[in-house]
Amino acid sequence: MINSKLPNTGVTIFTKMSGMAKKYEALNLSQGFPDFEGSSELHALVGRYIQEGNNQYAPMQGALTLRQAIADKTKKLYGVDYNVENEITVTAGATQAIFTAITACISKDDEVIVFGPAYDCYEPAIQLCGGITKFINLEAPDYKLPLDKLVGQISHRTKMLIINSPHNPTGAVLTHEDMLQLQTILKDTNIIVISDEVYEHIIFDGANHRSIVSYPELAKRAFVISSFGKTYHITGWKIGYCIAPRTLRKEFQKVHQFNVFSCNHPVQLALAEFMQKEDEYTGLLAMYQKKRDVFIKGLHGSKFKFVPTTGTYFQLLDYSQIDSIPDIEMAEKLVKDYGIAAIPISVFYKNPPEEDRMLRFCFAKGEETLLRACEILKSI
Ligand code: PMP
Ligand code: GLN
User: Fold this and answer.
1) Ligand (nearest to CA of 236)
2) How far is the CA of 13 from the centre of ligand 1 (A)?
3) What is the pLDDT of residues 97-153, one digit of tens each?
4) Which of 76, 128, 323, 349 would be a feasible disulfide site paired with 116, CB 3.0-4.6 Å?
5) Which domains does the chain have, with CATH numbers?
6) How far is the CA of 226 from the centre of ligand 2 (A)?
7) Where are the beta strands (DSSP E) in the chain?
């Protein structure tokens, strides 16, 4: 029989909460996905590329036109050149890119530093490689990177560090100063960094996304990962990319070619063409800023406490003035008794802070849904 390699892993919280939302016919603000459609032009482009016969394997590293569009965007937004031939790989979403980068680098007993709460796919991948995850907790309410604690956790076994900005689930954003300090801390080490930047275009109140590509000491050791799912409202297409210097990319590719080989070809060609419309990604920020503002304005007068999120399409709400039960119970109660689904954030920690009473709500929803959600939340 199988000796489980992930004995303590069940189904993800996203599967659980979306399942409950369906069962109880609740408003689903749990799993992060938009309830509106992306561009019909993009949809039509995929159809066109299928009709034109682009239905066989894409090149292993991704369609050249898409790699070129990714390189052009990276140059335009962050001023950095990446080589289309050997520094960019198109992946089946950010999840596969993260899994592939971890698998390519982590061996038994290597340590990986992860900040909790952390997106749920990091730790299982590390565990499957026999690595050891060293969690450092971020602290409410601002969830700032605890750089002093980071220094204390680095050892000769530290192989990798994973950062995520804008951050899921807290919405925290790394600043230029954070990145400079991180650069100083890692400068004389061989630590590899995964920089999960899937929400790079969803950032609020005039803040700037500080991509790791802009910090040379960090960029030379970094796998930079993004997802078209977030940017173009197509989470179901599972398509993203990884950019990394060629030595890292070489190892990434060795794994990539055997865990997926290549990704959906017509979708890649359509995205390459659609990426020429810069407004489609630069305009994302204004669209989501509006949604965030509708949501937090609508919560005025509720018993939930919160700090407005600075990035991502998630808002944390603190329910400590309403109830003292643990967040998993609270999330279940909200679905069953109030018809609204959220994500408990304790599941994203190794050692969740006992005093926190926090739930994550996704506001990538139509205005009517957001207003209905606010009415429900105000009634609690
Ligand atoms: N990283 C973070 C922080 C995420 O929130 C997500 C999920 N949306 C992913 C990675 C995975 O992205 P994808 O759906 O493209 O695999
Ligand atoms: N990234 C999405 C979220 O944070 C969920 C993705 C998934 O269901 N695995 O809600």
Assistant:
1) 1
2) 14
3) 999 999 999 999 999 999 999 999 999 999 999 999 999 999 999 999 999 999 999
4) 349
5) 13-31+283-378 (3.90.1150.10), 54-277 (3.40.640.10)
6) 14
7) 27-28, 88-91, 111-116, 132-137, 158-164, 192-196, 222-227, 240-243, 314-318, 340-341, 343-344, 358-362
